[in-house]
Amino acid sequence: MVRSTPIPATRGPCGVNLNMATGLGGATPSPGDCTICITCDTILLFDDNLLLHRASKEEIETIPDEIKACYAKYIAFKKTHPLPNTRTMKH
Question: Can you tell me the mean pLDDT for 83-87?
């Protein structure tokens, strides 16, 4: 099950408005969780108020290896299966 959860609106590093988080298995975000900007593929972290910020090199080093492996698979998949331009999609 995949479920999207409203989060406090944040601008991603690329300028896109991020106001929803989608979690596998119905997961909802918690402080310290990581996610990916679907527009620019930047790794982001949730702070205590569920606002997103770009993960620093030090923060990325603390992300578990299995999460990093998932990110690498996502990037490889996206190279061969481009997503629609999310900036121009009508919601």
Answer: 62
Q: What is the DSSP letter of 88?
A: S
Residue linked to tokens 């080093």: 61
* DSSP characters over 40-64: T--EEEE-TTS-EEEPPHHHHHTS-
Judge whether 87 and 52 are in contact, CB under 8 Å.
Answer: no
Tokens of 84: 């629609």
> By the 8 A CB rule, do 43 and 29 touch?
no
Say yes or no to pLDDT of 59 above 90: yes
Rounded alpha-carbon distances, angstroms, from residue 1 to 21, 22, 66, 80 = 14, 10, 20, 24
Q: Which residues, listed in sequence order, are joined to residue 17 by a DSSP beta bridge?
A: 11
CB 52 within 8 A of CB 40: no
Q: Give mean pLDDT, residues 49-58.
A: 94
